[in-house]
Amino acid sequence: MADLQDRLARIQAKITALKEKDPDLNLFGSESHAYKLNEPLSNQTLTTFENEHQITLPQDYRAFLEQIGNGGMGPYYGLETLTDGLCSSLDYKDKKYGVQTLSEPFPHTDDWIAPGYKEGMSDEDYDAWQEQCFQDKEVFGLLRIANFGCGVSINLVVNGPSYGEIWVDDRNNDNGVYPDFYFGNEERLGFLEWYELWLDKAIEEIEKA
After folding, report:
1. What global pTM score does this model have?
2. What is the spatial distance between Cα 154 and Cα 76, in angstroms, rounded to a whole number?
3. Helices 2-21 & 59-67, crossing angle to 10 degrees?
4. pLDDT per residue of the chain (209 residues) written in tens, 0 to 9
5. What's the CA gap between 26 and 29, in Å, rounded?
6. Beta-carbon contacts of residue 87 (< 8 Å; ≥ 6 apart)
């Protein structure tokens, strides 16, 4: 727990530093979140959410929600709130587009894309292939945490063998789902590792500008 608290304190200091270094909101996505974080959630609210969805949130993400903020300042267009993380589509936050199922495990441990894709396939075959890609079961256990844009979401695995890892859902661009290595990391990241790496890279980018 001491290590977790040390990391949260370090992250809080970097959050403050990044805000101060970019008053004109030059960093990509900063105009969306304006370096603001929503109010943290209570332990009771988090426990209610966990009970409702039959999961235990990864400890580092839960601590962030409780001690730092519930969505706002973060990678790409910012962090989603916990409840918006349930939306199947972050571009259309409407229940008619579906809600993520967290109570069932995310089935993947390695990059996944539906088999059978071929260059030049007929429209009929392509539609059938896409149907396989977009079966709900392929993204069970994924909580949406950030909108990358272009129909791509960044997700936290909250149920299943890849529990606690950050994964990309890029099915809208026919690229399937895969662990997130977008920040140049060679290892799979947990939430706080991912968030702090973004802070480090963002600060470096602003300092070089």
Report:
1. 0.95
2. 9
3. 50
4. 769 999 999 999 999 999 999 999 999 999 999 999 999 999 999 999 999 999 999 999 999 999 999 999 999 999 999 999 999 989 888 766 789 999 999 999 999 998 888 888 888 989 999 899 899 999 999 999 999 999 999 999 999 999 999 999 999 999 999 999 999 999 999 999 999 999 999 999 999 98
5. 8
6. 80, 93, 94, 95, 97, 98, 99, 100, 144
- The residue behind tokens 């396989």 is 132
Lookup: tokens for 69 = 């903020």
Q: Which of 45, 169, 153 is nearest to 106 (CA)?
A: 169
Nearest one of 129, 164, 133 to 151, comparing CA atoms: 133
Residue 177, helix vs strand vs coil? strand
Contact 97, 88 (CB under 8 A): yes
Task: Report the greatest alpha carbon distance in the chain.
Answer: 57
SS3 readout for 63-79: HHHHHCCCCECCCCCCE
In the 8-state DSSP scheme, what is residue 169?
E
- E strand map for 67-151: 142-149
Q: Are 62 and 40 in contact (CB under 8 A)?
A: no
